[in-house]
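Weekly puzzle thread! Below is a chain. First person to post its structure in token form gets bragging rights.
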Amino acid sequence: MNEEHMMRTRNKPEVLAPAGNLRGLKTAVDYGADAVYCGGKAFGMRSAPRNLSLEDFEEGSRYAHERGARVYVTCNVLPRNAEVEDLKEYLGQLKDTGVDALIVTDIGVMMAARRIAPNLEIHISTQAGVTNYLAANALYELGAKRVVLAREMDLQAVRDIRANIPEDMDIECFVHGAMCMAFSGRCLFSNYLTGRDGNHGECAQPCRWKYSIVEEKRPGRYFPIEQTQDGAYLFNSQDMNMLEHLDDLIDAGATSLKIEGRSKSAYYIAAMTNAYKSAVNEYMVQRGFEDEDGTPLAPFHDRVHRTAPGESPRVGEAAIESATPAPDPVDLPQWLREEPYKVAHRDYSTGFYYPEHPVTQNTDRSHYFREWLVVGETLGWSPEEGGRLTIMSRNKIEAGQLVEFVLPGRAPYAYTVPGDGFRDEHGMWVREINNPAHVFSMPCPEPIPVNAAMRSRTKQATMKAE
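Winning reply:
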């Protein structure tokens, strides 16, 4: 480790958002993401055709860089022999698109990327299952800039790894979204049941399916494993939600905070990116690194607090760091704590970060809760007539309905739809909006930015498949 590496300091924790297409990438950047990770048309762990093309990466990288954000590309499949030459060609194409890093699992892919695209950082995917500082240091010596830790790690393990790796090596940790029942996502379940390889981005998610027992001599009679009439969902893991515990994770040494969800909607990306970015800003202010306007007050470092309250350092270099009193918890405003419940989600947990409260399964259902619904998307705002908003409708909107607009860098704007004033795309007055995917306008005094999601609480919580 050279002196330059030892002296490196960080500006603030990175909020890393997902994107499944170019629009998602731009949405993530608009709502505060410091970096966006996305897959190309090949060699990523999400094989949906809507992934980004090389031209998308070029445009997306320009868009992100102009706004101070970065773009990471997933190349984290475990390739077969027949795919190696195509993969090498793809790496050569990516190096000139302007992206900043490659996320890889396979060590051969990693070394090929170093030769073919030396201008790109190498990030080691969670599929590599890094669980200790020995592995992290070995990968660093091979050229890795970052390790995405296995999701099965607890906070003390994160502290110990941070204390025993080079200062300029990043630690990326998952903070939000769906979790996999297999270790670090390495699963053959889908391959066995459907022939779709989860290690090639084609997982059919059979762990979310409903299962019952059938006794050999009584075919056609299905016995639920749990005592419910609908059977049981054996491997249906809860979702992760670490929003209210980001202070613990950052204090433990996490450099990058990763939101899961490359197959999610632009609304999900906007809402969760905005929530986690706002939470990080609260952390920086309440820890004294920045003032309310974001002006730096003290250099940020990711070794704020290496031990949990009442604990002593345990491993390697961690043992020579003096134990310090636990800092005060970061207090998040109520609107921010509510944001994760305004997107479709399963029951939440804090993953494996707290051994006393580990993630479990929902064995009675696999659907998502949905308490809020996107009813529109803004197309433009005009100051005429005291303010008029043009929207693309998604669901029913009627007079007297309370809606919220998801706005970057701030709490949502709540607004009661006025009793009259809707106009359709032809300028005709209408009482309510019943037609999805149609253009309407309505009075609104607040200048709402383009592409902001307009949402409303459902009359009763619903369950939806995803």
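Puzzle host: Confirmed. Bonus trivia for everyone else. The chain is about 25% helix and 25% strand.
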